[in-house]
Design goal:
Length: 236
């Protein structure tokens, strides 16, 4: 049987707002001298929550882990549309918000449940001829994007205080939650953008079992090894 080291597997990180997912990988790689590391499912810079970091031979399982369904919670700001569909983008338009309640929002959110074709936003890490779309977007260039099949299992609002609606959403991999926020704003007629997003779960892994990045980076190498989910457990 192939021997695995204590650093062949995955680490669950609770990503803070600010760094990119790639920044988190780099920080772990540099701090612990790990040569091979990657992440399973990008979180936008201002998004927080569960980020699965694969290390060593665990990187061989990144595609498998990335394919898992995801669960999020977040907030949508109604009345303001942005070019990136989130709070980081430039404001495109501002409109009055009609009277809304969690019930009226949930009636509209129900139309997003199920299979649908979703076009990735221009401000995304998807590449066109080797160039990330967000770099083209910064230059004012817009290109055609191939719609992708996604599935939304659950999308409900638990609270609304104008202009913010708080929601929970479960979906397949590759779903752009900010695109759903933008589309919902269009459906209501006032525009909207994603104000906050937190990933709660990915497949069988939960953010409750993740360690905040700043705390993780203070561990010794031996302590990090104790937090690594072994390769053979991930492969099951």
């Amino acid at each position: 049987m192939q021997e695995f080291s204590p650093l062949d597997g995955a680490v669950l990180v609770d990503k803070p707002a600010g760094p990119t997912s790639h920044d988190v990988v780099d920080a772990i790689r540099r701090t612990f001298g790990i040569k091979k590391a990657g992440h399973c499912g990008t979180l936008d810079p201002n998004a927080t929550g569960l980020l699965i970091i694969v290390v060593g031979r665990g990187t061989k399982l990144s595609e498998k882990l990335m394919a898992d369904d995801k669960v999020y919670e977040g907030a949508i700001h109604f009345g303001v549309a942005t070019n990136s569909f989130d709070a980081d983008g430039d404001i495109l338009e501002t409109k009055p918000v009609p009277p809304l309640t969690p019930d009226t929002l949930n009636d509209m959110a129900a139309s997003f449940i199920g299979d649908q074709m979703q076009t990735p936003p221009m401000v995304s890490a998807i590449k066109k001829d080797g160039v990330p779309l967000y770099k083209l977007a910064r230059k004012g260039v817009e290109v055609e994007r191939e719609p992708r099949l996604i599935h939304v299992y659950h999308f409900r609002f638990g609270n609304y205080r104008e202009p913010l609606g708080e929601f929970r959403l479960a979906c397949t991999k590759g779903t752009y939650v900010r695109s759903i926020a933008n589309d919902l704003g269009g459906k209501i007629g006032c525009g909207a953008h994603l104000a906050a997003l937190r990933r709660l779960a990915s497949g069988k892994f939960d953010v409750a079992d993740a360690m905040p990045l700043d705390a993780l980076l203070k561990l010794s190498l031996r302590q990090l090894e104790q937090r690594v989910i072994p390769f053979l457990k991930l492969a099951v």
